[in-house]
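Attaching the record inline, Q. Sequence:
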Amino acid sequence: MILSGDYHTHTPYSHGKNTVLENAFAAKSKGIKEIAITDHGFNHIIFGLKRKNLVALRSEIIEAEKLTGVKILMGMESNLISVDGHSDMTESDLKYFDIFLCGIHEVVKFKSFSDMRDVMFKNYIAYKFGKKPSDKVIANTTKAYINVVKNNPVDILTHINYKCFCDLKEVAKCCSDYGTYIEINTKKRHVSAEELNLMASTGVRFVIDSDAHSASRIGDTKIAEELLAEASVPPEQIDNIDGRLPKFRFSAYKAEKL
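Structure, as predicted:
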């Protein structure tokens, strides 16, 4: 399986090991048409992208595109920071970016203490101790995912259900309605084959992403191939394989609003 685009890669602007150019050369060597540079969001306390570095990052992207011929989207793996669907990609930040990813992470500055408790802490405790999450935890996480998709032009939800627990079918329905992709992440196995089938039954579209923190993992599909071999998701429902490229909602939003 060869990806036509890999839309989740990191650089030293967060805690990736390789530069934009090195990631682009790795993509080119694997026949990948385009990649996105998506370092961790501003509110990540340890590894967050800094707003002061946005101009420098864009310059590196422009130069890497010239040298490799690979199309490079400037993005960010933003953090979901409230049950009401806030992210640390604010309206004033949108003009700097080409693609909008969002996920739930640890070590993040949340909008309020209650948001940190309900979105991250209670989920992490259930994950850490192997406990079944309460209905309230699942409901809050589901609400957070749905609200961030409704309230922001999110292109991709990253590693959904990793160290967090939601109603996958309800989130997938929302993503299908709003044109947001659900990521099949190949850095970690975050859903089961049965859960993937459940989401696919809503008609939601998927992308396979490496979540590469080093250039050697750009375009990696191993976990996705293993998962898809167990599942029954039609290949036509995955929009960055077989030469296809996704249609992202953020680009349409920018053309209309910005």
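The chain has eight helices and seven strands. Strands lie at 5-9, 34-40, 71-79, 99-103, 156-157, 181-185, 206-209.

More tomorrow.
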